[in-house]
Design goal:
Layout (H helix, E strand, L loop, with lengths): L5 H10 L3 E6 L4 E4 L1 H7 L3 H4 L4 H4 L8 H11 L1 E9 L5 E13 L2 E10 L1 H19 L5 E3 L5 E4 L1 H7 L3 H4 L4 H4 L6 H4 E3 L6 E3 L2
Amino acid sequence: MDFNSPDFLANTLRNLKDLIIWIGADGRLLNANPSALHFYGYDLDTFCGMSIHDLDTHFRPSVWPQHWMALKRRRVLTVTVQHRTALGVYRPVEIVDSYQFQGDIEYSVAVIRPIDHRAERSQRMQLMEFSVDQMVDSALWIDKDARIIYANDATCRNLGYAHDELVKLAIYDIDPNFPKWPGLCQVTGGTGRPRLVW
């Protein structure tokens, strides 16, 4: 197999799950792999009649020249933005945009990853933290060095510390008789998850 052949490279781009789009120096969309077309909901002809500003409606065309000059200077830019699909739905994406040129033609290749799951995970973490804060029981999160990295409101009330004071302490500052920490927290085989071992 010739890994440098045009067929091999084209097939690889066609089958990537990452979204790949080619953008002209003027912001026009030049090409896209099937994953990008599926994600955005356009056929290739319609997609190539659009500009980056049709996807990122908050990216004003008047800002494009400065963006292009920054991309040329730095060669690679990474941004997180909201892109609009054909259905009008805005989806959070992370873009790694790379400046390219062949002869006198300048363009960029943008590798785009949907990051909806990051926003969902962040919301779940906020909800979990809120829930733990509202508990009547004390709850502490302790790192591998026995340092307190989080304390809920009940812990602060019960111990008489402000949250900012508690997170500067180790568990031994509160309870000198607490079991030896390195032997207490172990990583279970195969799962990679910490487990308390008494």
